[in-house]
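Obj.: predict assembly geometry.
Materials: sequence records (below).
Method: joint structure prediction, all chains together.
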Amino acid sequence: MPEANVLPDATTTDGALLVLAIVSPAAGVLLSFVLGGQYAERIAAVLLPSGLFLASIIFVDVWRSGDRLIYIVGDWTPPLGIALRADGLSAAMMMTMAIVICAVAIFALADFGTRAGSAEARAPFAFWILLMAIWGAMNMVFLGGDLFTLYVAIELLTFAAVPLVCLDGRAETLQAALRYLLFALLGSILYLVGTALLYGSYATLDIVLLSRRIHMEPATLVAAALMTIGLFAKTALFPLHLWLPPAHAGAPAAASAVLSAVVVKGSFFIVVRLWFDVMPGMLGPAGAQLFGGLGAAAIVFGSVVALQQQRLKLLIAYSTVAQIGYLFLMFPLALDTVSAELQSSGALTGGMLQAISHATAKAAMFMAAGIIYAVLGHDRIAELGGVARAIPMTIFAFALGGVSLIGLPPSGGFLAKWLLLEAAVATGQWWWAIVMLAGGLFTSGYMFIVLSRAVAPSGEPLKPRVAVPRYQEAAALALALTSLLLGLVAFGPVDILQAGRLESMLVGPR
Amino acid sequence: MIGESTLLASAFVVPLGMLLACLWPQARNRMPSLLAFAPFPALAAVLLVASDSSLAIGSTRLRLTFAMDRPGAMLLGVSALLWIASGAYASQYLQGRPNHAQFVVCWLMTLTGCVGVFLAADMVGFYFLLALLTLGATGLIIHHETRSAWRAGAVYIGLALLAETLLLMAFVLLAAQIPGDSLLIRDAAAVLSASPQRNLILVLLIAGLGMKAGLVPFHFWMPLAYSAAPTPASAVLSGAVVKASILGMIRFFPLETALPDWGTALAATGGFAALYGVVIGITQRNPRVVLAYSSVSQMGFIVAIIGMGMLAGDGRAALAAAFYAAHHVLVKGALFLSVGVIAATGSRLLWPMLLPPAIIAVGLGGLPLTGGALAKFVADELLGDGTASTIATLSAVGTTLLMLQFLRSLANTASQDPQATPAVGLVWPWLATAAVSLVVPWTLYLTVPAGTLPDPLSPAVLWKALWPVLLGAALAVPLWRWWRWLPRIPKGDIVVALDGGMRMAVTWGKALERLDCVLRQWPTAGASLLVLTIALGAAVLAR
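Observations (raw structure tokens):
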């Protein structure tokens, strides 16, 4: 096959791991259905840690080789078949999500654990199956090599995420879930239409092939715009965030952590794939500024509204709205304003690092909020007094998560902010720098409000309603520490996020 | 050389280790009695490590560097002395009080940050340790958890984080200018004066460091914070911690290159602050608030010295400002400790106990033979004979007056019980600090600037220092006579303007929240989806 020598796409050693990363969660879901609900937890208990192990092998492989892992499914090369590819971005995100999901699973043992010999219960059964489904879908998002696979993945993700919102079956969570479902479906339709347009024009959806064939023409750009807005709706980028606050604030703590930390990153990741890999540099200055403008509006709106919240979980949900905004600032910052070409790799690294550090920090904060809710029986911020004495470890985890969100060193948030600011200075786009810095101040504002209430003494000694298991607090703290120490990756010798980037990334529009 | 870098590292690693040890309850409970030992490695490093030795951690991509330079060593040494004395004071102070754990954690955090900032030679490390310092200091300020303590803490952390935000922007701008990957402060200062964004960077640096230094009009946090914090915390905050920003100015500003416009502006602001602090301070009756305003005045004076150095492109300003600041570290620390001691002293012992604070307080005004006179004498070299010199003299007169007001308000706070005697554990750290504040400036003067200056003991010099003090003392008589006619200015003076700003911010916040509610309605969200699709389509097509 002389063709195979021309194309870089051939299954690499260890490429089969990529299949395993997608198939094993799917197998877990099916097995749970077959064996029955009381086994779902045990199956997850085996599969999730092995998933973390798998993700770390892939991570180390990509890091060592500095190149992509590829698996050509059934040896049918694209455009006929499907390719799975793991570059630095995928490997780092897979690793992060595996860590977060494992921590969430440990946390959820208290709320969704099934006693040995007990009968199947609806909520735990659904939770463990959905958790495995989300994990599988995320892996597919990260590894999928063509836009249709990504569509399937993002649909899977949505359908696994929506039931998580209404696990407790209360009327208002059902309403929030429906809101989420309907809006996400609107997004799916837009994405699918865009995909169809691209396929009609280029007869392939494979990312590598597409990036070689694609050129500037109205149909392509319309397709890209449709897909992007569809993904924005799923990411809850301002002003398309109507579903996020009720859904994330209403779900059980473990589910909120997954939704806020993991699920919104899936659609964001596809936006990155689209504009950095499929059509690098085609966003153009105006489009990039629009991305940045939406991100900036999200930062300002989300933070200011978060400052006004009376309930802790709603505050954290609005903080997610704001933090999503940061992710989209990397698009204008990665684009050189003069030559309209994708330039600095720093902005891409900074944006992805922001996604990673937000994932770990936000999951920790939602877990902490869940523990606080369990202890107090409410999460009204004004009445948090004394809680820091009762559960110091949890409040500490919450504070560390906040440190990362504010962007104080040595957190991952700081490194991300530094890289993004550097890109802003290098490309002369100081207005995004102002937004980023102001966002940090707003964030410290709402963190101060929560923490000052939490450490204030209470009128009468606080009697915890339930005894919080130590491992729940430990899971939250471990994630918060991960986020805090993430900035230390800057001491590392290589930048994994840049591993296996295509050369075509730095080529301008054709 | 390994020994030197180990010493350098231990200066901040030991407090950091003690901080981490606080994770264990047993260690936390024992920690109050160990606080005084945490700063010893820093002191050892100052005494044993040669100037200009450095320590680097990290890889080629990012390297944290710690180094000892002359101004840094001077300030670190005296700060370590103050931290030791205040730590000893704190261990007595904490006995029989609640919330030990919170206090020691915040104390060690502040100490680590303070020592680290004095040693940090690169911008990332400087920023990190400054942030650590801020968080720890906020914890110390709100320690008593009263309403006013919370307010002071909120104002402090708000302003400090704003300052750090401005500094971060300045650092990123500087990093973009430095050729290569270096993040060293030395390299940043070298490129600053020739940088195309020089003015922007200087505005950010001056505003950021000025906020942390309590430079007027960003001084309002000082009276709030120092009157709310526990006594030993006030001592280290006013003495050692604020000097971090002075050191920042010394290190970042290009003092070797003359920048007349910026130098004039900085010197004028500093001079104004030096007088403003006095004018507001003499209307106050709480001794801590009077001291806080004295800090406003003294920090202004130090900034004026740096400004004069920038004006003339005189590199000696770095050492002069550091010397003046070093003296202020010890004096202000000792005076704050005396507030706690006198409050525990009854009328029987009051007069002998008031003697040490009286000497060093008037020394701050420039009483001959004290460290204050020496500090002013060193600064005089840079101030020249013009307006700056007049302001310096006025400030000396005013400071004397302010210090007499401090002593008067201090005497009023003495214990109601005539037989009350302060605990020994409070008295000796305080006396030691007072003694050290008299001795150390002379030691520093004799060792560091290598005696190139004219004799500070000549009669002309002595008289020049003495007459402002006498004039200040003479002015105290009419001041106290008509004192009750003076306007009653709330502590923090212009901070009341913040309340108005706060109300406006709340209104705006509410408006944004209502807008958010509208945006989250289905019809609006659907319309946004449509508009965004069209807008993005237009944006990518239109080029």
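Conclusions so far: The longest strand of chain B covers residues 54-58.
To do: check interface contacts against the pulldown list.
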